[in-house]
Amino acid sequence: MGDSTSVPAVIVVMGVSGSGKSTVGALLAERLQVPFLEADDLHPAANRATMAAGRPLTEQDRRPWLQDLARWIRQVTASGSGGVMACSALRYEYREVFRRAGAGVWFLHLAVGEAAARRRVAGRAGHFMPAALVDSQYADLEPLRPDEPGLTVDAEESAQAIVNQASAALRTIG
């Protein structure tokens, strides 16, 4: 990997919609010179349509998507390249799916207040996730537990400041 930081195989940049996952994830992947995956890109059309209609996904809707993401984690882990994935990963059980998929999964939780998340989502053009679903995301959000490897940061910081914080934290675990 390009940065001298010794990094876990996969870094999952997580948080509610509007927290900045895609921006931070892409910047972090660029710094580390590893592949980047926007998890939303793997949602089937039916899931996107459900969310665009203002309805949260069911566990049945999510299951195949989570398995596709776990497959990506296994692939980048096996390739030795590592990677960064932007994914809501709101619930502990979803993060456990990722941790079981490959050794060395580390989470960067972008914590943001509800008002800021709603404002950010409402200001996005062309995204399938409406601001109306932000409440359901907070209802599902389970912050990182002490047994989960990762870091929680203030998503109101600049994307570059967050990448710097993550890089510094990653250096301490290498």
From TrEMBL:
It is an enzyme of class 2 (transferase). Pathway: Carbohydrate acid metabolism. InterPro entries: P-loop_NTPase, Therm_gnt_kin. GO terms for molecular function: ATP binding; gluconokinase activity. It catalyses: D-gluconate + ATP = 6-phospho-D-gluconate + ADP + H(+). It holds the Pfam family AAA_33. One of its GO terms (cellular component) is cytoplasm. Its EC number is 2.7.1.12. One of its GO terms (biological process) is D-gluconate metabolic process. PANTHER family: GLUCONOKINASE-RELATED (PTHR43442). NCBIfam families: therm_gnt_kin. This is Gluconokinase.
